[in-house]
Amino acid sequence: MQVEYFQVSNTGESRQRSRVYRCEGIVIRRRDFGEADRLVTVLTDDHGKVRALAKGSRRTKSRLGGHLEPYARVRLMLARGRNLDIITSAQVLEPMTHLRREERSILYASHWSEIADQLMAESEQNRFGYGVLVRALTSLELGRDPVITSRICEWEFLAASGFQPELFQCTGCGRQIEPGGNGMHIEAGGVVCPQCHALDPLSRAISNDALRVLRAIGRGDGGLLYDRQLNDDLLKEIEQLLIGYLRSVIERDLQAWQILSSLEDGTTWGTPGH
């Protein structure tokens, strides 16, 4: 990547060099900072997770304001600062406007962004992790089943961060996992055989179908699940396994998922504010 330099003045101090870099990213979080600025968190293609200051972006005439909407895919130019990098320009590549029109879609996008914020390291390139979020948001934008998309996204973020569960060998004794009577032991890091499952109250049963679906996602065949009729009980089982695993890894609750799961049960969805 080519590095450029430009001169800046710092309140009368001697002129000095600041590094400038460009990247592509997804806005996963932002909050107000000071009177007119925003602190923006972006998951990028080449620099991992980046927290940067968008100066003056809350002003109505700001050049940056409309280009840093949540979940948008953007191209940025940033200057490295002493404490925070500074966003100097932004261009929207994919606005993701459709997903922001419905509360349900917003919550799914927020859920995935929260996982990315917790699992992706700052300033460490992780193109696979970036691709996970791009694919998930694009699927949501195109109207694909968000439940299937979410299970794929959750697994792939675990894989991108090195925390994917072991599905082929017992994490208790090392035996090869065969169909029938197995358990998922979150603290041990994956599936346990029937013998280890029976001996450990912390492991929970995992059905053969759930194990097959997780293995399909793990080998990159998750896209095939959109064309299959997976029953609600199976989808709920897989959700509980993955969410439980994620909560154990990040050692905290997933706030967006808590809201999403409470609203999924029998609630009529509408546009935000309705």
What are the salient characteristics of this protein?
disordered N terminus, about 35% helix, single chain, disordered C terminus, three-stranded antiparallel sheet, alpha+beta, five-stranded mixed barrel, about 270 residues, 2 domains
Describe it for me?
With 274 residues, the protein is of the alpha+beta class. The chain has 2 domains: 4-94, OB fold (Dihydrolipoamide Acetyltransferase, E2P); 99-165 and 182-264, Recombination protein O, C-terminal domain (de novo design (two linked rop proteins), Up-down Bundle). It has helices at 103-119, 127-141, 146-160, 194-199, 208-218, 232-250, 255-264; strands at residues 4-8, 16-33, 37-44, 49-54, 73-79, 85-94, 183-185, 190-192, 204-205. Helix 1 (103-119) runs antiparallel to helix 7 (255-264). The termini are far apart.
